[in-house]
Amino acid sequence: MRKLSVFVAIFVLGASAALAMSGADAIKARRELMKGDGAATKPVVAMLQGKAPFDLATVQKTLKTYQDAASKEPAFFPPDSKTGDTNALPVIWDDDNLADLDARFKKFGADATAALAAIKDEASFKATMPGVLQNCNDCHEKYHAKRQ
Ligand code: HEC
User: Fold this and answer.
1) Is there a contact between 41 and 62 (Cβ–Cβ < 8 Å)?
2) Which residue, judged by its Cα, is nearest atom 7 of ligand 1?
3) Average pLDDT over residues 25-43
4) What is the 25 CA–ligand 1 centroid distance (Å)?
5) Mean pLDDT across the stretch 43-54?
6) Which residues neighbour 131 within 8 Å (Cβ) at sequence distance 6 or greater?
7) Which residues does a 6 A CB cutoff place in the pocket of ligand 1?
8) Best of 140, 142, 143, 146 to mutate for ligand 1, by most ligand atoms within 8 A of CB?
9) Residue 146: per-residue pLDDT
10) Which of 7, 143, 25 minimizes the C-alpha distance to 69?
11) Among 4, 47, 67, 131, which residue has the least CB neighbours within 10 Å?
């Protein structure tokens, strides 16, 4: 129920309302979106590893989840969300890192959009998808305490 109401709030009110969220709510919202990214990534990793058959519809659904999350995530890093129930590294709020974080989310979304157009079959999937997933690792490397 709680999960649903957070989702509805994000969906209905959009990013401007999200900016007015309390720090704890912003943390909750960004972690929910990231969990969605994680869940959407599992089946495509299984395909890349040859543990599941290639399925274009699933790949497209995953990429759409990424596009959606990438467009919403930047709104959920207000200054009062630096501490709390979060694994985001405090360095995010130093210097120009917030702008860097935004740019990374933009690139992540743009790569997902490009991949949606480029992936037509298993060969193009294998050629394109690892580059999209690199966005996760690159950002976590710098800004996520657990480096997932
Ligand atoms: C531009 C930066 C950025 C990108 C791109 C990014 N992440 Fe994250 N991710 C974060 C940050 C920051 C956190 C920590 C959030 C927190 O704890 O407040 C996080 C947390 C997570 C979590 C933990 C969620 C939880 O339970 O708290 C998962 C899972 C995750 N990301 C998966 C992914 C996947 C999969 C991708 C790529 C498909 C991805 N992320 C792309 C920055 C990013």
Assistant:
1) yes
2) 136
3) 97
4) 16
5) 98
6) 111, 115
7) 27, 30-31, 34-35, 37-38, 41, 66, 86-88, 101, 104-105, 108, 133, 135-136, 139-140, 143-144, 148
8) 140
9) 81
10) 7
11) 4
Residue with token string 């690159």: 138
Region of residue 4 (left: phi > 0; alpha: psi -120 to 50; beta: else): alpha
Contact 86, 144 (CB under 8 A): no
- Tokens 């979060």 belong to which residue? 86
Which among 111, 110, 104 has a CA at the least distance from the CA of 144?
104
Q: Ligand 1 center to residue 51 CA distance, Å?
A: 24
Report the nearest atom of ligand 1 relative to the CA of 87: 17
Q: Which ligand 1 atom sits nearest the alpha carbon of residue 89?
A: 12
Residue 131, both tokens: 């580059």
Within a 10 A sphere around the Cβ of 137, how many other Cβ atoms? 12
Q: How many CB atoms lie within 10 A of CB 136?
A: 17
The whole-angstrom distance between residue 83's C-alpha and the CA centroid of its chain comes to 20
